[in-house]
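This protein record is not my work; I was only asked to verify it. Where you disagree with what is written, explain briefly why. This is what I was given:
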Amino acid sequence: MFSNRYVRTIILSRVLLQLGIWIRNYAVLLYVTDLTHNNPVYVSLISVAEFAPIFLFGLIGGTFADRWRPKHTMVWSDLLSGLSVGAVLLAVMNGGWIALLIGSFISASLSQFSQPSAMKLYKRHVPAEQLQSVMAMSQTVVAVFTVLGPVIGTFIFMQFGITASLILTAVLFLGSSLVLSSLPRDAEDPKSGDTGGFMQELMAGLRYIGSNPSLRTLCLTFSLVGLASGLTQPLQIFIVIEQLGLEKQSLQWFVMTNGVAMLVGGVAVMGIAKKVKPQLLLTLGLFVASICTIGIGASTMIWLTTVLLAISGLFYPCIHGGIQTLIVRNTKGAFIGRVSGAITPVFMGMMVMGLFISGYLKDMSSLLTVYVVSGGLIIVGAILLLPLIVEKRRKAERGPAS
């Protein structure tokens, strides 16, 4: 897998980007909270600046990724991200901290053009039997920085301040652009059949998803997983305080346990990816996640909650790796940007909806009820996949017979 030049280069680029993003995010968070004396309105605006582009530019960026050359798009996206951080630094040096939010928004927007292009290169240059391992590796990179990113970002800001943090972020983004520029020149890509304007291609991408049963099922499953994730994410602190009777500071240890397990799970998935079909891996991950979610909501024992969080983290890469692999395998190369750009915002949108209503649901019912509802949604998502698994098995059986 690492002998593939595209895999090596893109993974190295993602490492640099992830490091830059975490350093930037924590520098912005800590700097703004210091200046505004922990004003919750301004702190919430940071999350808006980081997540809003996913809704605003996910499908748009995916459509342009299909129209433009993928290497060219990724290089320019990372280059412009680095330059935007440099511009923000100049504004901050002149006392304009609001520019930090604008810079985060611009950088997150540019990522919506870069990520679908990476999927396009994987589709074009990675053999089908290696795709699942590559997706698991990408998830592992995310897991590593979920654990280490906050620590690194906080350390750099506390030791060196906002200026050094932003300079390092810009250098990492520009370094990613430089790494990607070493890839071979883009080959000409066959068109999707709709060579008209931007809106025509965008609508053609939506019609393509609607006409593809596998993609429709994956989109619905992903939306249910996003909603389930959003319901429980803000309530983790109440598991620690109310269910386990611990101080709120103890939450960090449970989050770290889950993150380390995600890292181990990602490595394990890379090892078994060639032996297990992605639809089975995804279904297994969903069933385990649902059981663990309900168990965490019911547990009042520290050891049991810790074990369930670890098991959940181990199987989490099965979910994201399985979905991403199935998206790439079931999508024509000419549509990969639009499909990726449409399905990811669906997940994020449903997650934000879950974040919004989780507190209300807890007040109306109980913590256990919310976790049971979350686990039930994941089970429904897994059940929706069963026809897809049966159909794949039938095709596999017909293949040798014919």
Residues 128-180 form the longest helix (53 residues). The mean pLDDT is 81.
